[in-house]
């Protein structure tokens, strides 16, 4: 670690002090590259001063070469040590002075940045002085704690700049550059970053803004010890490289590494089924050389012969066929994914392929590392407002060409300076151009009103039915436990409303000895009593809030009121929230029966089987209208439905859907009869309360000219054709969009998509998170098929099918799903395959397509049969729309593992933990055996099915029971036993859990458990009373395809 | 020169057709307004503007909904009149649109027809472009039929 040598020899402190004063007086702290350079050069001449002053330079904490382990512990205090130093960032100010160059003091100041550069030997000597030095004893400045790059100059710069003489001119530019690259290395550090920069600089107004920290994301250019961007070898000049790129076909990465299951897993017929039909040479045009690198992807598969296509490891998304250099910069597929990784050139080609074109996004995912940029200007295309990204091309030093609209833009002066390498004139190495996912701190022009405070309002149903379920206990307890963890700052506000046939407000005004309940019984015309005391500052009234949460569960135990006036309560809550916006969490346990928004039961159980007559559409538009009002006032409504009866989620769900909230559903919740649901609620609440949140957000998705986005899926309101209004955004929400090719893309090789999410963080900062994805354009059908991403396609189809079921009917949607497979496979057969072979030939990329579509048909949303309750179906549909792709795929097609014989073979090793990696099995009862135990990972639940004749070994050493009959009925935890078997399975399960932000509950299922039906329902390859088995489905498809 | 019932029908439909043309033009403008937010992108992201914009959208959608019934009933009135006047050719020209209107009105997916043109649905780009195309087609149709009615009116007045 190159320890910024803080302090120094001899006279340094004194001179620094002087500087300090000067700096604070001047107020402008921004040091900028050019200036520094000139100064430096001048300094070099004044070698004496230079050396002594060197330490001063260190205020610019430099990204540690190697992330010091100690840095992890750096805390607030640590960052404070920085403060005195940062005061020295006065160079800008000094510049205003008349000819300063001769002034040794100033010289010393500006020398700051220098150490980074290849130093003349004399300087090195100076730089080495140890931190032990003078004025910050013991407080070693942790580079990681405060990576602010106030980039001064760089070595190369010196060359460009005339010596001291040019100083004055350069000083003009000083103020332009105020970039600070704030990054924190480690998420665990987050708290310590809070505004650490501010304290030191309180007197310097402008500085404050720039010093703000990314306390939420453990951002950082890279948490890896060595900021990659700094490494000269890594710096390919991306921008420049574009023009020279061959058509994007130099991909060396195999498209799907997970492609083939180990042969041992294959059916006996497997090997002979390898129809290695190499495609006719005529199909491989320009891309021959590139494609031949991955024969796997070229393989045509006969699904009827090779039935075991499921890879034994989780399916990896295909890698776009791009030049390695570009691909390395491309957006992570977990965040941004396209159904076709090779974009067809024309709409005609897309129509021929019969595959849906669209994007799946998970824009607000919790990221371990996220570069955060604070800069006074955000560089965007002047015509289409695209943010500068790694896929733009730099025509020369001063101009860049937008990759979305092809407009040529100027590079702003400030952008010429690269804070990471501290080189002037290398705009293509700036972090904005090196990262496909980046977050900007929005300057003030992005907000017209001050960012809203975090406001949380909880609305509880306290009717008799609600009290019966006993949910209040759980919720209040969870709230109490997580009150301090609610994302927020000192401005956080909180409020509570309860309702039955009347609406109860709680005054939590500071100074009251106990919460005061106000009852409004006029539900026809709801008004808010004492609006100022109902939403209170959480910090100031914390005790009252805690009081209330403790007493709330007991307050209504004797209630006899069975009516529920949800509509009026929502109206009241909306009125209360509308001045600020925020998040409203509504807990409802029955069908609303009073006032506006009252609903009538519509479900007729004996009609469940007929797919036609079910009510998927809202019966009233009250909730939709209210949701739009909420959206306009930046209020998001999250609905927790805990109901045993039909509650018309189709109507109620609208309130969340259009206000960008989320829906949680706990069928038959009861605190005693259904402890598993209680645990689920607890875990989900904990995640819900503590996860990140973004307020008053909007998201815009842009794409290269020629493509157009036409339909959005997810929870939001589309405010103008490409702008999604998201009053709240949470890290567990996914979105999907459909696209079409409007103009031919023949004259372009690459297309890009950019999503920009502007939000207010819970700390009250306005931020913009930008993701950019770049994909190649292809001209032949074969290449389109090769690049198909089967998971994304299935996910998008599921979204489209939900829309179809609502607008037409469920059976229509099911037909459309099946037709999607048939159409695309027959298109492949007729246009790509040269010789017509018998069987069901599919491109390797789509080998799982029929399986996934079959799984969708058997998913709760789209299944037929009498066993799905309407609310559960609608909830499943909400989930399809609102879940990120990964979890959607897991719920549709869960992973099945055999876990009674886990071994360390092929295990992962993470942090000294050995995590066994059992192969994923097909979802067929044929894979189960009575003498084994199987774990099914369905995203939000884990199910461990224990066979009747399961080995005694497993029972005693993993489950900790003596025999099969002793396995408890509602077992949701595995005991931690001191056996290797137990350790392995627990390691495996916790590894699965760590991969997702929420906490999937584990159910241990015996043969006679009620949960067994759920487990078996997921066996999608098997035949059920109303659905085909996988093989039958394939035969059906084959029949249709070969027609 | 005879002032027949047919001639009266044509005269009345001429007037009403002018109204329909206005409706169609208004639809086109409304959809255009829905499609484009004239604010600069940065302003669009501003929560204050969001409220205004949303109110605008709701207002337009409300008006659109209110116009549905008048338009459809005026057009049905044409058809009934031409049926009574036994103007088969004119009726024949109008029947397809009449059926289309019936289909639009009764094929509403929602449980109540009130949800036609509801803001979240209309704001979807493909729905919007469909509506816009529909409005343009109707405009063309009404314009042509306007001149056709004019011709027919004069023809029936002059002939016989």
UniProtKB/TrEMBL annotation, chain A:
Residues 451-689 form the Sec23/Sec24 trunk domain. Residues 694-778 form the Sec23/Sec24 beta-sandwich domain. It comes from Suricata suricatta. Residues 789-889 form the Sec23/Sec24 helical domain. Residues 378-414 form the Zinc finger Sec23/Sec24-type domain. Pfam families: Gelsolin, Sec23_BS, Sec23_helical, Sec23_trunk, zf-Sec23_Sec24. InterPro entries: ADF-H/Gelsolin-like_dom_sf, Beta-sandwich_Sec23_24, Gelsolin-like_dom, Gelsolin-like_dom_sf, Sec23/24_helical_dom, Sec23/24_helical_dom_sf, Sec23/24_trunk_dom, SEC23_SEC24_subfamily. One of its GO terms (cellular component) is COPII vesicle coat. One of its GO terms (biological process) is intracellular protein transport. Residues 72-139, 154-188 are annotated as: Disordered. Belongs to the SEC23/SEC24 family. SEC24 subfamily. It is a peripheral membrane protein. This is SEC24 homolog A, COPII coat complex component. It is found in: Cytoplasm, Cytosol; Cytoplasmic vesicle, COPII-coated vesicle membrane; Endoplasmic reticulum membrane. Residues 72-92 have a biased composition (Polar residues). One of its GO terms (molecular function) is zinc ion binding. Its main location: cytoplasm. Residues 915-989 form the Gelsolin-like domain.
From TrEMBL, chain B:
The chain crosses the membrane at residues 7-29, 72-95, 139-158. It comes from the Eukaryota. The keyword Membrane applies. The keyword Coiled coil does not apply. It is a multi-pass membrane protein. One of its GO terms (biological process) is vesicle-mediated transport. Keywords: Membrane, Transmembrane, Transmembrane helix. Pfam families: Cornichon. It is found in: Membrane. GO terms for cellular component: membrane. Belongs to the cornichon family. This is Cornichon family AMPA receptor auxiliary protein 3. The lineage of its organism: Eukaryota, Metazoa, Chordata, Craniata, Vertebrata.
